[in-house]
Amino acid sequence: MDAFFKLHSDLPREGPGEPADIAWATALAGIKPAAQMADVACGPGADIGPLLTAAPQGHVTALDKTAQFVDAARKDWHGDGQVTVLKADMAAIMNSYDLIWCAGAVYFLGVTQALSAWRKSLKPDGVIAFSEACWFTDTPSDQAKALWDKEYPAMTDEAGITAQIAAAGYEVLGTRRLGDAAWEAYFTPLEARVQMLRPTADAALRAVLDETEAEIACWRAHRAEFGYVLSVVRPL
């Protein structure tokens, strides 16, 4: 874990995403200018600014259970009256929100489990927007299958995500596949950090760097086979 956090120190984000995704989701959800929003598993806080762009008079409660990411988000948003950054578990969201946003982290709980747990924290007409890794093909390459069998063996396809949403008692307002720009927003600075750290890396860090480069190479070679789907959902 020390090697992982050394690699991931000072990165702008911890997974694929871009402001256009948030703009699309908040427009579809009809988010009001003064919306109360939660950024769940916020990482270093890359999505806080775009959320506030969508709701300029709103408030974001950003939470993550990893102290390093909480510190990074607080550094960028310290003293901002529209943002509260908490060290907290995504499984136990407090308060009530017009929008719960979760970029790429629902898999820690499972789609159905997360949506079921968060229902109590939605205001009337509140929505949840989350991105989830999934297969885009029934016949993935050996390289892609090996990567995701290790990273997320329970990963399903888009129909499987829809079924998990329905099992939690939600309807889908819309879905959107994350584009290449969202992936490069994560991988480009990550790749640069790998290259910076490699010359002085010890054995443990080299192993993490090798795994990271393999992940990046796999996506660039097989991006048509897998990706993230952003879903905007509402309780029935």
UniProtKB/TrEMBL annotation:
Protein's UniProt keywords contain Secreted: no
InterPro entries: Methyltransf_25 (IPR041698), SAM-dependent_MTases_sf (IPR029063)
Any one GO MF annotation of this record: methyltransferase activity
Gene3D superfamilies, alphabetized: Vaccinia Virus protein VP39
Regions that span the bilayer: none
Keywords recorded for this protein, A-Z: Methyltransferase, Transferase
Methyltransferase domain segment(s): 39-126
Pfam families: Methyltransf_25 (PF13649)
GO biological process, one term: methylation
Organism domain of life: Bacteria
Name the record gives this protein: Class I SAM-dependent methyltransferase
Species for this entry: Sulfitobacter geojensis
Lineage of producing organism: Bacteria, Pseudomonadati, Pseudomonadota, Alphaproteobacteria, Rhodobacterales
